[in-house]
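#struct-help
A.M.: can someone run this one for me? Single chain, 346 residues.
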Amino acid sequence: MADALYVPVLKGKPAELTALTLIQPATRSRVLPLVEFVPGPDPEDVKRTVDRTIKGLKKISGFRLMLDTGLLDPSVDVAAGRNALGYAVESARGVGIPAVPVVRLGDDERSIRAARDSDATSGTGVAVRLSFEDLDDDPDVIATSITGLLDRLGLDRPDADIVLDVGAVDSERAAARLVRDVIGELDAVDKWRTLIVTAGAFPADLSAVSPWEVGALPRRDALLWDHIRRRRTTRLPLFGDYAVAHPLLSTGTQFRAAPQLRYTVSDRWLAIKGKVNDPRGHDQFYEICEMVTGHPEFAGAALGTADTRIATPRARDPGNATTWRALGTAHHLDLVVQRLTNLGEP
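D.P.: on it. C-alpha cells below:
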C-alpha cells in the first residue's frame, strides 16, 4: 500500500463504478478505493447485490481495492457457508481484483474468518475500519478492541490498514482534534501498513442550490485533513473522502434528479443544476457543462476523460443521472490526486 496516496470511499453503484473506469492511469496508480456494497431492493438478496457489484468492478480488473460489505446483512448464508464478505472477496479475486477485506470491531466470526482466509490465500492483509462512534470512545477501550480484533484475525499491524472514518463533517476543527487525539493514543501507530482518515462533507442533496446558479459548497473534509497536516501528529494519515456523495446511504423515496454537475475545485464544490420539468429535459446538461467550462476554476480538458467530456458536452448525448454522477466523481478523483501529488494537499 506504500504507493497509495488517496483513499476515496465509493458506494458500489453504477455511477461510482463507472467513474473508476474513467480516471487517468496516473490517478489509478495513486488511489486505493474503498468500495461499499449497497443493498438492493430486497435486502435479503445479498448474493444478487454482491454479484451486481462485482460485475461492475470486473471492468477494472487488476485494480487494488478495499471491499466493505458492512451495509449488507452479515448473517445471510450467501454461498457454501460464506457470508457477504467472504463471497465478495472470493468473487472479486475471481475477476482479477486483489481485494482487501474491510472488517469492523464488532464483526461476527464469519466475517473475521473470511478476512483471515483471504489473507492466508492471497496475502491481502485486512483493513480495520473504525466508525465515528468507535473514535469517540475511551482511548483504552479503542486500544483493547483493536488488539482483540487483530488477535482474532491472527494478523499484526504491518499486515493491516486502519481507517479512521469520521463520517459526515460539520466542524472540521472539532473533527481534526478528535482524529489527532485518536492517532496520539493508538498503540504502535507507525506499525500499521497504512493509516487513513476518511470523512465526507458533500450534502445529502442539492436542494439548497437554486437552478442555474453556481452553488459553492465548502470541502470541509479536505479542510479537516489540512488541520491534521498542519499540526504535529505521531503519523500523518492518508487522505480519504466520499468524493461528491454524502457519507450516509440515502433512504426513502428516490425522486427524479434534474440534470446537474458536482464539480470539485480547490476548496469547494461547484454545484449546478437545471430543472426537473424543463422541456429541454436532459439536454440542459449541455448548458451546465458550458457554465462549468466558462468558470475561471475549470481544470481544463487535459485533466482527464471526465473533463474532456465536460469541455465538449455536445459531442455525445447528454446521458442521465448515472452519467452526471460518474463524470463528477471521476473529475474529483483526478483532481484530488493531481493536487496531492503536486501541492501536497487535496
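A.M.: thanks! Residues 13 and 38 are 7 Å apart (CA to CA).
D.P.: also worth noting: The longest strand covers residues 160-168.
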